[in-house]
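Reopening this ticket.

The earlier resolution said the output was attached, but the attachment link was broken on my side. Pasting everything inline this time so it's all in one place.
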Amino acid sequence: MDAPRHLVVVGGGMVAQRLVEALRDRDTAGTWRVTVLAEEPRRPYDRVALTSFFAGRTPEDLALGDADLWDDPLVTLVRGDAVTAVDREARTVTAASGRTYAYDHLVLATGSYAWVPPMEGADLPGVFVYRTLDDVAALRGYVQGLQAERPHQVRGVVLGGGLLGLEAAGALDALGARATVLQVDTHLMSAQVDLGGGEALRRLINRIGIGVRTQAMTTRVHEHRRGGVGRVELADGTRLDADVVVVAAGVRPRDELARAAGLAVGPRGGVVVDDTCRSDDPDVSAVGEVACIRGACIGLVAPGYTMAEITADRLLGGSATFPGADTATKLKLAGVDVASFGDAFARTPGALEIVWADPVAGVYKKLVLSDDARTLLGGVLVGDASAYASLRPMLGRELPGDPSAFLLPEGTGGAPDLELPDDAGVCSCNNVTAGAIRHAVTDEGCHDLGAVKGCTRAGTSCGSCLPLVKKLMATELEKLGVTVSTALCEHFALSRAQLYDAVRVAGSRTFTEVVERFGTRAAGRGCDICKPAVASILATTAPGHVLDGERAALQDTNDHVMANLQKDGSYSVVPRIPGGEVTPEGLIAIGAVAKDYGLYTKITGGQRIDLFGARIDQLPHIWQRLVDAGFESGHAYGKSLRTVKSCVGSTWCRFGVQDSVALAVMLELRYRGLRSPHKIKLGVSGCARECAEARGKDVGVIATDKGWNVYVGGNGGFTPRHARLLAEDLDTETLVRTIDRFLLYYVRTADRLQRTAPWIEEVEGGLDGVRAVVMEDSLGIAADLDAQMAQHVDEYEDEWRATLDDPEKLRRFASFVNAPDVPDPSLAYVPERGQARPATAAERAAAASGAPVLVAGSTLEVRS
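Inline output:
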């Protein structure tokens, strides 16, 4: 075989990553090997989500794509080695390290740099740009340093009121600084929205505590007498006090390599390329923000991805050409909903504008239509961008019915359903059409959202298209005759959430009542799906002991005996240790129980002690001793609260700013026994160092100088998720009320066995919708949720203590019905590392034959 040709990519950003990914996906013959030369010391990451770094996401969280791409033998990623020169004649590039790389084809993907206006003081400490992870990490560190040194609230000024400037202001606000945006133009986001939309946006920005000044040009940054930034001066002579300045005044293409190599550049910079993304040198292409295509450099990721796909296609002999840029944008700032798409400024001759404005609600919506008021040309949505995902793919197409219906608030008639043609773009970030999604569902067998995302990449970047992707998927499944059913099972036509509400309103207290009222004709005695689900629902709507009456027959194996079944048929015992806090006497009691019953002991990840190897007939005896020592059930067997993990916080740690242990203990005692669709875990960290790993929990609490930040939707498991910020700087009372409502809203509306992370993705409105329900009572159910949690706390009863007091319940804890006092002879153990573990089949066979059993180099005996 011929040796593969060598592609060198200069730049390690999002577009470079997409180019390599696209090429390797299509180049099955291995005709190209790729070397990516990245200036930054990390693999490509999501710059679009850069602001989420301030909500606790790490560089690893922001990393793009599959890490296995960079382990491909035909792909080499060189990090932290910027290219300094291109020799087109020799077809080589030279890096800062002095290494030289020969290429068969070169792609410039160097992106852009943050432009800093010419002004005195721009080089002072405390002046930052907002472009890379290093930039935002330095900004965060500087602000936190000022907060530790100065008594007043840190004052931040952002130069630039565009997308990036508003995100930077949001970042400062998230850090606890008082932010002011200075915009040179007449209104915010002047490149994307019109004056009316800009005014509505200003009001929204003001509402979240960020100041705005328009037509404000900064001419100088003054130094403070203690060093660093002290104030900024405007062209009209106004001076504003400032401790930190973030420059987000625009970007410029990084075309210095192209200029030095003699490639043609545009009037405003950028490597001039044709519709195939080739420069005037056929062996050199340019993609992304550095490319000047059709006379412009485009500072958006979606057109860059399109260029990457075109370049990959051309390298493999294809004929793809640039179709034009999708310049649709959506602001990513909590509490501010803004989107712009198409001809937002109605520059098309004869264009008509339909506007809906509600200044009180902070809503401004505009559609731009053709002169016959039928074809959609563009739009601006401020304050309510829920229609964005459905309208943007309709650009250049006729809207059905009255276009104004798409602007009116919900409840006023509503917009007609849109039947998108196959070639309509749904995910602009990844160039996924409606047809591609339909093909994935009908031909590829992708029948759930995760499968569709994996097959098409739709919704895997910014995520704004996910509601539309889900709707398309459901529609296609219905066409296939695949019932898009939300039914709990064949015995209940209602979804779990619907059944929960029905049971709660009806006041049903038993499974029989629930089946008779809401079950199907075939319900009978239910199944392994609906019985535990109904048991979980009744546990919160009609609290009672898990083994009372017919409830005992509904439980899973673990709940049935209130212990976790192990692989050898024995059970584990997990006493609750709230917040991981335990007295020496408590440790001695647990140790004595473990020693007397020969149990294997292990410290769990949830800061408690697991005791393994108990026989079913031993469980009551073990629990009697634990209850007498002051312990209660840890509910390790139930779909309920498991643990609240904590660090030592301000009690002992010199870095702690709040008492995390006290809060963790209080939360665990408050939510113990709360049954839910899946297990729930909480974590409380006493400072930003996050030793309790709170952001890996369903609810994570992190202390601040002002109170507590609360994060939700963190999960471990097969698909780990980081929790996302729900609210900041809450006092303890507000924090507890917020968690109460979040947990019960989840309990009421989640699907069976659905963790909090996927629930947040699928619940109406996503995280913003959850925030509105929990923090703003948007559904009017807050008082009901508060009352339900108060009832749970008041009526909590330790299940094991109640069981020990009930001889009838104790009857079920026997090895054999006809010989309750005979131990199970099938259990066998071998000692290892000073403890007992289950014997393997080979060890059992060896012991039965009388041969010695060797484990870890020692001669051992099997004991029963």
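Reporter confirms the inline version is readable. Confidence is low (pLDDT under 50) at residues 854-864. The longest strand covers residues 352-358.
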